[in-house]
Amino acid sequence: MAALTLARAGARVAVLEQQTIGWGASSRNGGMVSPGLKLATRKLFKQFDAELARELWQTSLDAIELIDELVRNEGIDCNWQRDGHLHLASKEAHFEAMRDNAAWFRDALGHTLRVVPSAELRSEIGTDKYFGGVIDDVSGALQPAKYVAGLAKAAAVAGVRLMEQCEVMHVARDRDTFQVTTTRGLLRAGDVIVATNGYTGQLLPELQRRVVPAGSYIIVTGPLHPDAQREISPSGRMFYDSKWFLNYFRLTPDGRMLWGGRNSLMPDADAIQSAQALRRQMVRVFPQLAEVPLTHSWSGRLGLTFDMLPHIGRIDGVHYALGYNGHGVSIATYLGREIGLLLSGAKSRSPFMDIPHPTRFFYDGQPWFLPLAARYFQARDLVS
Ligand SMILES: Cc1cc2nc3c(=O)[nH]c(=O)nc-3n(C[C@H](O)[C@H](O)[C@H](O)COP(=O)(O)OP(=O)(O)OC[C@H]3O[C@@H](n4cnc5c(N)ncnc54)[C@H](O)[C@@H]3O)c2cc1C
Q1: Ligand 1 mean position to 200 CA, how many Å?
Q2: Which of 101, 119, 252, 308 is positioned for an S-S bond with 39, CB 3.0–4.6 A?
Q3: Cβ of 323 below 6 Å from ligand 1
Q4: d(CA 154, CA 7)
Q5: Which stretch of DSSP H or E encloses residue 50?
Q6: Reduced to 3 states, what is the DSSP secondary structure of residue 289?
Q7: Res 265: pLDDT
Q8: Ligand 1 in contact with 196 (CB < 6 A)?
Q9: 31 lines ligand 1 (CB under 6 A)
Q10: What pLDDT was estimated at residue 280?
């Protein structure tokens, strides 16, 4: 998106990707697009002044409209549908908090969240495992590999050079330009944007210390009988639950269950073992899927930040945009446009560059603490 924005503004742009375009999280995510950032919106208002918090919230809505606009204007065929999402309470207390939250969203932001008590849940989802939920009609879903391919095509048509199997090994400042060393040769550039999110390596050690790679895992079943589809998801919504180790799931346009989550935060769990664990979680919620075969299991890397917020920044003159914390389909698109507008001079500021981008003294780029963090979140799921 950054490349497309810059190319349309008249710049000569190349995207350098170590694998194939979209190979990272962008082609393998759950395709769920919802308002807000990973940090809860009410916490934004506690952490920042009201004006900045409101601006950050509004960007999350604008980011969804941006997808709408791109799909329409660039003709991206990616099964984009706006059927809303249902946030499900895994415990009774979570439902009370959701109800309170819905009132806060209405009063503070004028944003409607529809509360669904447990007695009415069956009209939304084919399980009795939850204690109620809230619906946000603004949300949508897409097929991520088709979406990122559509963006790449638009960028290529706008004149962007897409360089695959082209790992960036080193970026060195050379007066007013940068010398970029890649596995396919040297390149000179006036500006460099790093957008490596959960795949951030040692290119900029100060950046690596600010983003933690964590794993997220997905399974997909074979196509379900149309009756089962209607029972499981009568309104075709996306679902996610209220646990720290949350599950996110939806039916795909061809009627399969796509079920995502994690057991640990480690990025490299075995695909068969993670599939077995995810399947157990799925069958606990939908016993009717016990006999349905799985056809796919995969994983990808999220880019976590210590403040659970995405950031635009600059280190040694090199620009970056990352840190989507598992909520990047719309937000990464938005920050891509934002950084493109900043570099082309069409904008002079972004709220994402106004917030400090923290690291921790104990993190040098090796996420040794992920197993401990996973235990901590599992314990919180038990008690809270
Ligand atoms: C399993 C999974 C499910 C998810 N589900 C959702 C969801 O439902 N909704 C949602 O909003 N978000 C979701 N996310 C998060 C979302 O996918 C990401 O936030 C978003 O795709 C990040 O986009 P990006 O372009 O910043 O990074 P990525 O798409 O991860 O791209 C980074 C790229 O950088 C490349 N790279 C790294 N280092 C170098 C180098 N030195 N040289 C060249 N190339 C390099 C990598 O190969 C990679 O392709 C999910 C993520 C995962 C992994």
Answers
A1: 10
A2: 308
A3: no
A4: 10
A5: helix 50-73
A6: helix
A7: 85
A8: yes
A9: yes
A10: 96
In short, whether 19's Cβ falls inside 6 Å of ligand 1 is yes
Query: What pLDDT, on the 0 to 100 scale, is given for residue 264?
Result: 78
pTM beyond cutoff 0.85:
yes
Q: How far is the CA of 115 from the centre of ligand 1 (A)?
A: 32
- For residue 198 and ligand 1, the question of a CB distance below 6 A is answered with yes
Residue 9 structure tokens: 């503004």
User: From ligand 1's centre to the CA of 372, what distance in Å?
Assistant: 24
Q: Is 113 helix (H, G, I), strand (E, B) or coil?
A: coil
How many residues make up the chain in this entry? Answer: 384
Segment 21-44, tens digit of pLDDT: 999 999 999 999 999 999 999 999
**Per-residue pLDDT for 289 more than 90?**
yes
Model confidence pLDDT, tens digit, residues 200-220: 999 999 999 999 999 999 999
What's the gap between Cα 76 and its chain centre? 19
Question: Looking up tokens 């989507």, which residue turns up?
Answer: 324
**Closest residue CA from atom 36 of ligand 1:** 196
3-class SS string, 124-160: CCCCCCCCEEEEECCCEECCHHHHHHHHHHHHHHCCC
Cα–Cα separations (whole angstroms), residue 106 to 23, 57, 136: 39, 14, 12
Does 18 sit in the ligand 1 pocket, CB within 6 Å? yes
In the chain, what percentage of residues exceed pLDDT 70? 100
Name the residue of 4, 15, 17, 218 whose CB sits within 8 Å of the most ligand 1 atoms, as the mutation to test its pocket. Answer: 17
Torsion over CA of 9, 61, 77 and 25, rounded to 10 degrees? Answer: 90
Q: In this model, does residue 263 exceed pLDDT 80? A: no
Q: CA end-to-end span of the chain, whole Å?
A: 39
Strands 114-117 and 248-251: unpaired
Nearest to 245 by CA among 191, 326, 335, 176: 326
**Residue whose CA is at the smallest distance from ligand 1 atom 9:** 32
To 5 degrees, how large is the angle CA 319–CA 310–CA 4?
55
- Alpha-carbon span 252 to 260, nearest angstrom: 13
Q: Taking all residues of the chain, what is their mean pLDDT, rounded to a whole number? A: 96
Q: Looking at ligand 1, which atom is closest to the CA of residue 321?
A: 26
pLDDT of res. 382:
86
Nearest CA to ligand 1 atom 19: 328
* Residue 300 Cα: closest atom of ligand 1: 53
Instruction: Give the pLDDT band of residue 327 (cuts 50, 70, 90).
Output: very high
- Angstrom distance (rounded) from CA 170 to CA 166: 12
